[in-house]
Design brief:
Shape: elongated
CATH class of the largest domain: Mainly Beta
CATH topology of the largest domain: Thrombin, subunit H
Number of domains: 2
Oligomer: single chain
Number of strands: 17
Order of helices and strands: EEEEEEEEEEEEEEEEEH
Mean pLDDT: 80
CATH architecture of the largest domain: Beta Barrel
Strand order of the largest sheet: 8-9-3-2-1-6-7-10
Distance between the termini: 54 Å
Low-confidence stretches: 218-225
Helix content: 10-25%
CATH superfamily of the largest domain: predicted glycosyltransferase like domains
Structural class: mainly beta
């Protein structure tokens, strides 16, 4: 998939980092303009983003852009190099530029470790229990029973993961994927952690547990010979 194949009407998430906070603003692709490539880079033209009736100013903050293409239902990174608003009749349009073509968003490139731990996920006082499906240093997949999932994609949640021997690990992140039909009983969601989290201890804990299990199995298999 290339930028010129992007579908008009695709959703665009503009993620703005202000201090330690991440805010997500949604808009929509109205035009792809590759004729401006030589001057500014690839250009995605979107509906304007307004907050309280005013155009959202983005130039003074770190901005990350993701495009959810309606044609193939995949999410793409758009490496922003510049942006501007232009007047179009009585309204404005938001021009987003990149010196690179779009790239498929890989939810997590880090090593994933399958594990099953109890988790309390929280958003604005709403707490729900779920379980880990797998974890990595950059995110995790979690299982909810189908009748207990109250969150949605792009929600920023806080998770308390309960490890072995009463250990607890707290992480914050954004829900980036929801699989409603993972199986007949569970919904699977993917969460991308916000920056570095103290999850390495838990992953090391799981790895040690798995190593001990495998060593024990090898000893039992050796006795059978």
């Amino acid at each position: 998939m290339h930028i010129n194949e992007m579908t008009v009407g695709s959703g665009v998430s503009v993620i703005v980092t202000i201090g330690k906070e991440k805010l997500t603003f949604d808009t929509e692709v109205v035009q792809i303009d590759i004729t401006e490539y030589k001057k500014y880079g690839y250009c995605v033209i979107c509906k304007p983003i307004r907050v309280d009736g005013k155009l959202l100013g983005l130039t003074n903050h770190a901005v990350h852009v993701e495009i959810n293409n309606v044609k193939d239902h995949r999410r793409y990174n758009f490496n922003l190099s510049a942006l501007k608003y232009t007047r179009e009749g009585k309204d404005y349009l938001l021009h987003l530029y990149s010196l690179e073509d779009i790239k498929p968003k890989n939810f997590r490139t880090a090593f994933r470790l399958e594990c099953h731990y109890r988790v309390i996920m929280q958003l604005r006082g709403n707490k729900k229990e779920c379980f880990t499906h797998d974890l990595s240093y950059t995110g995790g997949a979690y299982l909810f029973s189908k009748d207990s999932f109250p969150f949605a994609e792009k929600d920023h949640v806080t998770m308390t993961i309960f490890g072995d021997k009463d250990s607890k690990y707290v992480a914050k992140g954004m829900i980036v994927r929801v699989v409603p039909d993972f199986d007949k009983n569970y919904i699977l969601i993917g969460v991308q952690f916000d920056g570095d989290v103290d999850i390495k201890k838990l992953i090391n804990e799981v790895q040690m547990k798995e190593l001990k299990r495998r060593q024990g199995k090898e000893k039992r298999d050796f006795k059978k010979l």
